[in-house]
Amino acid sequence: MKKIYFGAWQNFYHLSWSIRFFIEITVSLFLIFMLCKLVRKSGVAFRLKPYLIKGCVWISTEVIYLLGRNNSWAVEIDNKIIEWGDKKLNGGAERKKVKTHKALKFWVISGTVIIYFLAVFVDMPVAEHLQKEYFVEFKNIKKFFQKYEETLSRGYEDYPPLFVKKEPEQTAEEPAEAAEEKEEIPVYIQLNETGKNGANVRQEPSLDGEIIGGVNAGTEIFYRYQWDCDEEGRYWIKIYVPSEEVEGWLSGKLVESTQLESLINGPER
Known about the structure:
The protein is mainly alpha-helical. 54% of the residues lie in helices and 11% in strands. It is built from nine helices and five strands; from the N terminus they run H-H-H-H-H-H-H-H-E-E-E-E-E-H. It has helices at 2-12, 17-45, 49-68, 72-90, 97-120, 132-152, 176-183, 193-196, 257-264; strands spanning 199-202, 211-215, 222-229, 235-241, 246-251. The strands form two sheets. It has a three-stranded antiparallel sheet with strand order 3-4-5, with no helix packed on it. The radius of gyration is 26 Å and the shape is elongated. The mean pLDDT is 81.
């Protein structure tokens, strides 16, 4: 099961962030609706509705108390929750049941759409016109959801992709540029002990760059004769991973120090 789950994440990370997050938030919304439907049906089947309503009221009032203490807004919300529970238990809200469910679905879907656009806003062309402080705030929203994504996929680098792309057949005549690349002596990247345990390949030479793949001790890695240095003084080297058909940037802190030094001091950048 782990092989299928983490292998799917290997393929999933090849998609752009906006597409990945759309799929993730759609699946989450579907699971929420299914869970609510299951709870509702279970309550009817086992006659648990009164207990479920009382439980929801108790949990909600406790949360409101922790957040608002004795503030006026907290007391007002608390009273409304209790009133809602009484109506549900006494059957006074049955007439508005259909309208309430439609309104709830509308607000849940609307909130989901808003959350989606907040998370992918920095990738839109219009984001370039934002002031720096607003751009940073939107970028933090994206980072928050990406951290959650990384938590769900932690350890995926140790598993092969679930779906492997078939390499296209080579034609008899190859382009001149491809022939020149073949003449270059390939440089294999040697990972240090930290890198051998698993390292991310990013689209940009920065810790904020999108994760597009991963490498470990058993991965074949080629150097692309290009390196960079970010604002924090961290070196990045451009690599190509043939097993995943991924080209991106690897942190120099994950490469053997002697090899990194020779790459940085080399003639090409």
